[in-house]
Each structure stands twice: as C-alpha cells, then as structure tokens.
Design a protein that fits this description.
Largest sheet: 3 strands, mixed
Helix content: 25-40%
Radius of gyration: 19 Å
Distance between the termini: 62 Å
Strand order of the largest sheet: 4-3-5
Structural class: alpha+beta
Number of helices: 4
CATH architecture of the largest domain: Orthogonal Bundle
Order of helices and strands: HHHEEEEEH
Shape: globular
Length: 135
C-alpha cells in the first residue's frame, strides 16, 4: 500500500539516520570536543535543515549508547567527544574558547592528595591561546 501508515515513520527514521551520521561526521571532522552549537554548525553542512533541539536529542542518545562522552569544564556547558579515546586531558583557548585534546598526562597525581585519601581519577585542563589565536 503506497503512502500507507508505514510511509511516514520510514521517512522519519531515514531523516534521523542522516542527522545522526551528520552529527558523527562533525566530530570526525573537528577531531576535538564540541559544544552543541558547534556540532549544529558543522552538521548543517550535510543536513541544512538540522535544528539545535535535534542535535541535543541525538547527543543525549549517542552519549547513552556509549558513542560519545561528555567533557565538563568548570563553569561551561558540556562538550562532547567521541568515546573510547585513551586517557587524555584538555586545553581550552582563552580567546576563542575552543577545547582541544591533550594526549599526555603528568602521571600519578595521587601524591598531591591529602594523606590517607584515595585518588580514583583526575581531570587536567590547560588554558592559554591555541595556535590560530596565538598568531
């Protein structure tokens, strides 16, 4: 039956798949943690009609599915990055506010904890100017 009750959900599912692929592509192209509006701007290159509410819905689903993880910097909206990266830290540009991965770690920071405390994890964020803003 053409145009029957199943036609609209299939189109909706195709649109959702195209949107999710565009969102994933945004992360692949940027290769850094992104804010939702940054994801929107990059993904709209492939899906011009994409809106921020759809981006947030997909970011939530992709995070729940384990495809993305959140990067939370103090006083900032969450950023998202592809899950599964090896342990790493971040650098935030103080001029453009973009965040970049730092694939280095100072090592065991347990010695900085008060005596008797157990360090289970750590986050380290470096701040300064990125290469583009430094020029």
């Amino acid at each position: 039956m053409i145009g029957g009750p199943h036609a609209a959900p299939r189109r909706s599912a195709e649109r959702a798949t195209r949107q999710r692929v565009a969102i994933r592509g945004a992360f692949d192209r940027a290769a850094r943690p992104l804010l939702a509006p940054e994801v929107l701007a990059l993904a709209q290159r492939e899906v011009p009609g994409l809106v921020l509410a759809t981006v947030y819905r997909n970011l939530k689903a992709m995070t729940a599915d384990g495809e993305l993880r959140t990067v939370q910097l103090p006083g900032e909206n969450p950023r998202y990055e592809i899950a599964g990266h090896a342990h790493h830290h971040h650098f935030q540009c103080t001029r453009c506010h973009r965040v970049f991965d730092v694939h280095a770690c100072p090592g065991d920071l347990a010695r900085l904890a008060p005596p008797g405390f157990l360090v289970e994890d750590h986050e380290l964020t470096l701040y300064g100017r990125c290469e583009r803003c430094r020029a």
